Amino acid sequence: xxxxxxxxxxLREMTSAGxxxxxxxxxxxxxxxxxxxxxxxxxxxxxxxxxxxRVAAEGVSFAKANDKRAIVFEVNSETDFVSKNDKFMSLxxxxxxALLESSALTLEEALEVKLSSGQTIKEACVEAxxxxxxxxxxxxxxxxxxxxxxxYNHANKRISVLLGFEGNINDEDAYxxxxxxxxxxxxxxxxxxxxxxxxxxxxxxxxxxTDLTGKPENVAEGILKGKLNKKLAEVTxxxxxxxxxxxxxxxxxxESKGATLTKMFRFEVGEGIEKVTTDFAAEVAAQLAGN
Length: 291
Description:
Layout lengths: L4 H11 L3 H10 L4 H16 L9 E8 L3 E9 L8 H16 L5 H5 L9 H12 L4 E9 L2 E6 L5 E9 L3 H14 L11 H14 L7 H19 L5 E2 L2 E5 H7 L2 E10 L11 H10 L2
Antiparallel strand pairs: 1-2, 2-3, 4-5, 5-8, 6-7
Protein backbone atom coordinates (compact mmCIF):
# COMPACT_ATOMS: atom_id res chain seq x y z
CA UNK A 1 0.00 0.00 0.00
CA UNK A 2 1.27 3.46 -0.88
CA UNK A 3 2.21 5.71 2.02
CA UNK A 4 0.11 8.84 1.56
CA UNK A 5 0.23 12.14 3.43
CA UNK A 6 -3.22 11.33 4.80
CA UNK A 7 -1.95 8.04 6.30
CA UNK A 8 1.01 9.85 7.87
CA UNK A 9 -1.34 12.47 9.31
CA UNK A 10 -3.66 9.79 10.71
CA LEU A 11 -0.80 7.87 12.35
CA ARG A 12 0.64 11.04 13.81
CA GLU A 13 -2.71 11.96 15.34
CA MET A 14 -3.00 8.46 16.83
CA THR A 15 0.49 8.30 18.32
CA SER A 16 1.84 11.88 18.53
CA ALA A 17 5.02 10.56 16.91
CA GLY A 18 7.12 12.76 14.62
CA UNK A 19 6.27 13.13 10.95
CA UNK A 20 9.36 11.33 9.67
CA UNK A 21 8.97 8.53 12.21
CA UNK A 22 5.39 7.98 11.06
CA UNK A 23 6.55 7.86 7.46
CA UNK A 24 9.23 5.27 8.30
CA UNK A 25 6.77 3.18 10.30
CA UNK A 26 4.25 3.08 7.47
CA UNK A 27 6.91 2.25 4.89
CA UNK A 28 8.17 -0.58 7.12
CA UNK A 29 4.67 -2.05 7.48
CA UNK A 30 3.40 -1.53 3.90
CA UNK A 31 0.95 1.13 5.04
CA UNK A 32 -0.74 -1.01 7.71
CA UNK A 33 -1.55 1.58 10.34
CA UNK A 34 -2.12 -0.89 13.21
CA UNK A 35 1.24 -2.56 12.57
CA UNK A 36 2.83 0.88 12.22
CA UNK A 37 1.72 1.74 15.77
CA UNK A 38 3.47 -1.40 17.05
CA UNK A 39 6.56 -0.61 14.96
CA UNK A 40 6.77 2.86 16.47
CA UNK A 41 6.57 1.48 19.97
CA UNK A 42 9.20 -1.21 19.43
CA UNK A 43 11.65 1.03 17.61
CA UNK A 44 10.96 4.14 19.62
CA UNK A 45 12.07 2.78 23.00
CA UNK A 46 15.53 2.10 21.63
CA UNK A 47 15.76 5.66 20.35
CA UNK A 48 14.53 7.22 23.58
CA UNK A 49 17.88 6.70 25.30
CA UNK A 50 19.60 8.62 22.51
CA UNK A 51 17.44 11.65 23.27
CA UNK A 52 18.49 11.81 26.93
CA UNK A 53 21.02 14.60 26.36
CA ARG A 54 18.74 16.78 24.24
CA VAL A 55 17.39 20.02 25.67
CA ALA A 56 13.73 20.00 26.71
CA ALA A 57 12.74 23.56 27.65
CA GLU A 58 9.07 23.65 26.64
CA GLY A 59 6.16 21.80 28.24
CA VAL A 60 3.67 22.31 31.03
CA SER A 61 3.64 23.48 34.64
CA PHE A 62 0.68 22.44 36.77
CA ALA A 63 -0.55 22.65 40.36
CA LYS A 64 -3.13 20.38 42.03
CA ALA A 65 -4.51 20.07 45.55
CA ASN A 66 -6.77 17.91 47.67
CA ASP A 67 -7.72 18.09 51.35
CA LYS A 68 -4.38 16.60 52.47
CA ARG A 69 -1.72 17.78 50.09
CA ALA A 70 -0.90 20.20 47.29
CA ILE A 71 1.70 19.87 44.56
CA VAL A 72 3.20 21.84 41.69
CA PHE A 73 5.29 20.15 39.01
CA GLU A 74 6.84 20.74 35.60
CA VAL A 75 7.06 18.27 32.72
CA ASN A 76 9.23 19.32 29.79
CA SER A 77 9.18 18.62 26.07
CA GLU A 78 11.41 19.93 23.29
CA THR A 79 8.76 21.96 21.46
CA ASP A 80 5.55 23.71 22.42
CA PHE A 81 3.75 21.70 19.71
CA VAL A 82 3.85 18.64 21.97
CA SER A 83 2.52 20.56 24.96
CA LYS A 84 -0.68 21.21 23.01
CA ASN A 85 -1.17 17.53 22.24
CA ASP A 86 -4.04 15.62 23.88
CA LYS A 87 -1.91 12.54 24.61
CA PHE A 88 0.76 14.67 26.28
CA MET A 89 -1.86 16.45 28.37
CA SER A 90 -3.35 13.09 29.36
CA LEU A 91 0.11 12.10 30.62
CA UNK A 92 0.27 15.36 32.60
CA UNK A 93 -3.09 14.59 34.18
CA UNK A 94 -2.03 11.07 35.12
CA UNK A 95 1.26 12.29 36.59
CA UNK A 96 -0.53 14.97 38.58
CA UNK A 97 -3.05 12.54 40.02
CA ALA A 98 -0.35 10.05 40.98
CA LEU A 99 1.88 12.68 42.60
CA LEU A 100 -1.03 14.12 44.55
CA GLU A 101 -1.87 10.72 46.02
CA SER A 102 1.76 9.92 46.76
CA SER A 103 4.05 11.11 49.54
CA ALA A 104 6.85 12.15 47.15
CA LEU A 105 8.65 15.35 48.13
CA THR A 106 11.72 15.18 45.87
CA LEU A 107 12.26 14.62 42.16
CA GLU A 108 13.97 11.30 42.84
CA GLU A 109 10.97 10.08 44.83
CA ALA A 110 8.51 11.42 42.26
CA LEU A 111 10.13 9.55 39.36
CA GLU A 112 9.48 6.25 41.15
CA VAL A 113 5.79 6.99 41.83
CA LYS A 114 3.53 4.56 39.95
CA LEU A 115 0.75 5.65 37.62
CA SER A 116 -2.58 3.85 37.37
CA SER A 117 -1.09 1.89 34.43
CA GLY A 118 1.50 0.35 36.77
CA GLN A 119 4.38 2.22 35.15
CA THR A 120 6.56 4.54 37.17
CA ILE A 121 6.57 8.18 36.11
CA LYS A 122 10.12 7.70 34.88
CA GLU A 123 9.07 4.75 32.72
CA ALA A 124 6.05 6.64 31.37
CA CYS A 125 8.26 9.57 30.35
CA VAL A 126 10.68 7.22 28.56
CA GLU A 127 7.78 5.62 26.70
CA ALA A 128 6.37 9.05 25.80
CA UNK A 129 9.80 10.06 24.50
CA UNK A 130 9.84 6.95 22.32
CA UNK A 131 6.33 7.46 20.99
CA UNK A 132 6.29 11.22 20.53
CA UNK A 133 9.84 11.52 19.24
CA UNK A 134 10.85 14.30 21.63
CA UNK A 135 12.55 14.17 25.00
CA UNK A 136 9.85 14.16 27.70
CA UNK A 137 10.88 14.46 31.34
CA UNK A 138 9.57 15.36 34.76
CA UNK A 139 11.87 18.23 35.73
CA UNK A 140 10.82 19.22 39.25
CA UNK A 141 8.17 18.99 41.93
CA UNK A 142 7.28 20.81 45.13
CA UNK A 143 4.67 19.85 47.72
CA UNK A 144 2.96 21.32 50.78
CA UNK A 145 1.30 19.02 53.28
CA UNK A 146 -1.12 20.31 55.92
CA UNK A 147 -2.24 23.84 56.68
CA UNK A 148 -3.99 26.24 54.34
CA UNK A 149 -2.90 26.07 50.70
CA UNK A 150 -3.80 27.91 47.54
CA UNK A 151 -2.90 27.14 43.92
CA TYR A 152 -3.04 29.01 40.62
CA ASN A 153 -2.57 27.73 37.06
CA HIS A 154 -2.24 30.29 34.29
CA ALA A 155 -4.29 29.66 31.16
CA ASN A 156 -1.18 29.16 29.03
CA LYS A 157 -0.17 26.15 31.18
CA ARG A 158 3.31 27.65 31.58
CA ILE A 159 3.05 29.28 35.02
CA SER A 160 1.81 27.67 38.23
CA VAL A 161 1.88 28.82 41.84
CA LEU A 162 1.57 26.95 45.13
CA LEU A 163 1.37 28.83 48.43
CA GLY A 164 1.22 27.52 51.98
CA PHE A 165 -0.33 29.65 54.76
CA GLU A 166 -0.81 29.48 58.49
CA GLY A 167 -3.83 31.31 59.86
CA ASN A 168 -7.34 32.20 58.81
CA ILE A 169 -6.95 33.72 55.34
CA ASN A 170 -9.98 32.89 53.16
CA ASP A 171 -9.88 31.20 49.75
CA GLU A 172 -10.43 34.38 47.72
CA ASP A 173 -7.69 36.36 49.46
CA ALA A 174 -5.25 33.46 49.26
CA TYR A 175 -6.01 33.02 45.55
CA UNK A 176 -5.41 36.73 44.95
CA UNK A 177 -1.97 36.38 46.52
CA UNK A 178 -1.34 33.44 44.17
CA UNK A 179 -2.22 35.59 41.16
CA UNK A 180 0.10 38.31 42.44
CA UNK A 181 2.95 35.79 42.61
CA UNK A 182 2.19 34.58 39.08
CA UNK A 183 2.16 38.13 37.69
CA UNK A 184 5.05 39.71 39.63
CA UNK A 185 7.40 36.71 39.75
CA UNK A 186 9.10 37.35 43.10
CA UNK A 187 12.30 35.37 43.47
CA UNK A 188 12.23 35.15 47.27
CA UNK A 189 9.66 35.07 50.06
CA UNK A 190 11.41 37.34 52.58
CA UNK A 191 14.59 39.42 52.59
CA UNK A 192 16.26 36.83 54.82
CA UNK A 193 15.84 34.32 51.97
CA UNK A 194 17.90 36.47 49.58
CA UNK A 195 21.42 35.01 49.15
CA UNK A 196 24.30 37.26 50.16
CA UNK A 197 25.80 36.76 46.71
CA UNK A 198 22.71 38.36 45.14
CA UNK A 199 22.96 41.34 47.51
CA UNK A 200 26.67 41.77 46.81
CA UNK A 201 26.15 41.64 43.03
CA UNK A 202 23.34 44.17 43.18
CA UNK A 203 25.37 46.52 45.37
CA UNK A 204 28.25 46.29 42.90
CA UNK A 205 25.93 47.27 40.04
CA UNK A 206 24.43 50.10 42.07
CA UNK A 207 27.87 51.51 42.93
CA UNK A 208 28.94 51.34 39.29
CA UNK A 209 25.84 53.16 38.04
CA THR A 210 25.30 55.77 40.78
CA ASP A 211 27.00 59.17 40.69
CA LEU A 212 27.99 60.03 44.26
CA THR A 213 30.37 62.83 43.37
CA GLY A 214 30.61 65.38 46.18
CA LYS A 215 28.35 63.40 48.51
CA PRO A 216 29.51 63.01 52.14
CA GLU A 217 30.33 59.42 53.04
CA ASN A 218 27.30 58.94 55.30
CA VAL A 219 24.98 60.39 52.65
CA ALA A 220 26.50 58.22 49.95
CA GLU A 221 26.07 55.12 52.10
CA GLY A 222 22.44 56.06 52.71
CA ILE A 223 21.80 56.45 48.97
CA LEU A 224 23.39 53.10 48.16
CA LYS A 225 21.53 51.32 50.94
CA GLY A 226 18.23 52.88 49.85
CA LYS A 227 18.72 51.68 46.28
CA LEU A 228 19.62 48.19 47.44
CA ASN A 229 16.54 48.05 49.68
CA LYS A 230 14.40 49.12 46.73
CA LYS A 231 15.85 46.32 44.60
CA LEU A 232 15.33 43.76 47.37
CA ALA A 233 11.71 44.90 47.69
CA GLU A 234 11.21 44.23 43.98
CA VAL A 235 12.33 40.60 44.23
CA THR A 236 10.92 39.78 47.69
CA UNK A 237 7.24 38.81 47.79
CA UNK A 238 6.29 40.14 51.21
CA UNK A 239 7.88 43.53 50.44
CA UNK A 240 6.24 43.96 47.03
CA UNK A 241 3.29 46.31 46.63
CA UNK A 242 0.15 44.17 46.40
CA UNK A 243 -1.30 44.32 42.88
CA UNK A 244 -4.87 44.29 44.24
CA UNK A 245 -4.14 47.21 46.58
CA UNK A 246 -0.86 49.01 45.95
CA UNK A 247 -1.25 51.08 49.12
CA UNK A 248 0.01 48.10 51.12
CA UNK A 249 2.61 45.40 50.70
CA UNK A 250 1.76 41.75 50.21
CA UNK A 251 3.12 41.06 53.69
CA UNK A 252 0.84 43.67 55.30
CA UNK A 253 -2.16 42.35 53.34
CA UNK A 254 -1.60 38.78 54.54
CA GLU A 255 -1.00 40.01 58.09
CA SER A 256 -4.27 41.96 58.00
CA LYS A 257 -6.07 38.68 57.28
CA GLY A 258 -4.62 37.06 60.39
CA ALA A 259 -2.27 34.77 58.49
CA THR A 260 1.36 34.21 57.59
CA LEU A 261 2.78 32.86 54.36
CA THR A 262 5.18 29.99 55.00
CA LYS A 263 5.76 28.42 51.56
CA MET A 264 6.00 29.91 48.08
CA PHE A 265 6.60 27.98 44.87
CA ARG A 266 6.31 29.57 41.43
CA PHE A 267 7.14 27.35 38.45
CA GLU A 268 7.50 28.80 34.97
CA VAL A 269 8.20 26.40 32.13
CA GLY A 270 11.80 26.39 31.01
CA GLU A 271 13.12 28.96 33.48
CA GLY A 272 16.81 28.46 34.08
CA ILE A 273 17.24 26.16 31.08
CA GLU A 274 19.53 27.33 28.31
CA LYS A 275 17.50 26.86 25.15
CA VAL A 276 19.02 25.77 21.86
CA THR A 277 17.96 27.74 18.80
CA THR A 278 17.38 25.56 15.77
CA ASP A 279 16.53 26.22 12.15
CA PHE A 280 13.39 24.09 11.79
CA ALA A 281 13.27 24.39 7.98
CA ALA A 282 16.89 23.26 7.68
CA GLU A 283 16.27 20.39 10.12
CA VAL A 284 13.30 19.10 8.09
CA ALA A 285 15.26 19.46 4.86
CA ALA A 286 18.11 17.45 6.34
CA GLN A 287 15.72 14.71 7.45
CA LEU A 288 14.12 14.55 4.00
CA ALA A 289 17.54 14.41 2.32
CA GLY A 290 18.49 11.45 4.51
CA ASN A 291 15.48 9.38 3.56
